Amino acid sequence: MNGFTAIYRRELVGLFLGPLAWTLLCIALALQGVMLLFYLVGAQGDVDIALRFLLGDSFVFWVLCALVPPLLTMRMLSEESRSGLLEYLLTAPVTDLAVVCGKFGAALSFMAILWASVFAYALVLAACGAGIDWGIVCSSWIGATLCSGLFCGIGLLMSSLTTLPVLSAFAAVIANLVLMLLPLVARLVDWPILTGLVKWIDISSNLTSAFLYGVLDSAYVVFFVSWTALLVFLTTRSVEARRWS
Fold first, then answer.
1. Is 114 within 8 Å of 28 (Cβ atoms)?
2. In which domain, by residue range, is 109 found?
3. Exposed / middle / buried, residue 23 (Cβ in 10 Å: 0-12, 13-18, 19+)
4. Considering only CA atoms, which of 96, 88, 102 is closest in space to residue 236?
5. Is the pLDDT at 166 greater than 80, yes or no?
6. Mean pLDDT lowest among 72-81, 127-136, 162-171, 187-196
7. Residues 6 or more apart whose Cβ sits within 8 Å of residue 152
8. What's the mean pLDDT in 26-42?
9. Of the ranges 26-30, 108-112, 193-197, which is most confident?
């Protein structure tokens, strides 16, 4: 992919040079730190359960997944399209796939850094004498990063469909919430067709079934990678449509 490294570096540096990324990072880390204390109290000092809550088994984790990726990606394509910079970029010697993957890689890297705070918390707990299962910590971080990649893909797709960053973020948040709540709706209405459909897109169960217990099952890895790849593909087609429009 010609130009991927340049696009990735440009987007990642741009994120950390702006106030939005630092604001989101500070809010997320503060919220996770406070919630970790509550999880430790609720789990009666069981560190593994508390860290599991922190990276996928709690309401706060899914709120961050629903909100942070859309805010990261809302300007990546929509703002550049509105300002005319995207047209200039598409005429440069880079492929459409490199443009999309570079921007996606920057957003995913930010989310990986955000979830990597669990290692700092685990080190502090280990220094205090707690027994840490590092296999669970590492696999949970991998699962959270893969899950975030899917939501980054949704945000980037929505950003490619509009020239308004706010509209892009709003549409991505709605799509994320629908995706998260669909399994709950399926259990409440008990429709066989809907239940069968949910098995293919149940993000929560695919994250919590293996990653949070220290298991790296290839089936769950493929689930997240395949859906994310589909979203990146659709975003690339959307960018290509802008090139020829």
1. yes
2. 4-244
3. exposed
4. 96
5. yes
6. 187-196
7. 69, 72, 73, 104, 107, 108, 111, 228
8. 85
9. 108-112
- 70 closest CA partner among 203, 177, 143: 177
pLDDT digits (tens, 9 = 90+) for 106-146: 999 999 999 998 888 888 888 887 778 888 889 999 999 99
Residue among 153, 200, 185 nearest 172 (CA): 153
Q: Which two three-digit tokens encode residue 240?
A: 């290509």
Amino acid at 232: V
Helices (H), 84-217: 85-90, 96-115, 117-127, 134-160, 165-189, 192-201, 203-208
Q: Report the largest interatomic distance among the alpha carbons of the chain, rounded to a whole angstrom.
A: 61
Q: Residue 185 and residue 114: Cα distance in Å, rounded?
A: 30
Based on the structure, what is the number of domains in the chain? Answer: 1
Backbone angles phi, psi at 202, to 5 degrees: -80, 95
CB 204 within 8 Å of CB 62? yes
> Which pLDDT value is given to residue 104?
94
How many alpha carbons fall within 13 Å on the CB side of residue 32?
26
Token pair recorded at residue 48: 């593994």
- If we measure between CA atoms, which residue out of 129, 125, 136, 170 comes closest to residue 55? 136
* Residue 100 near residue 235, CB atoms below 8 Å: yes
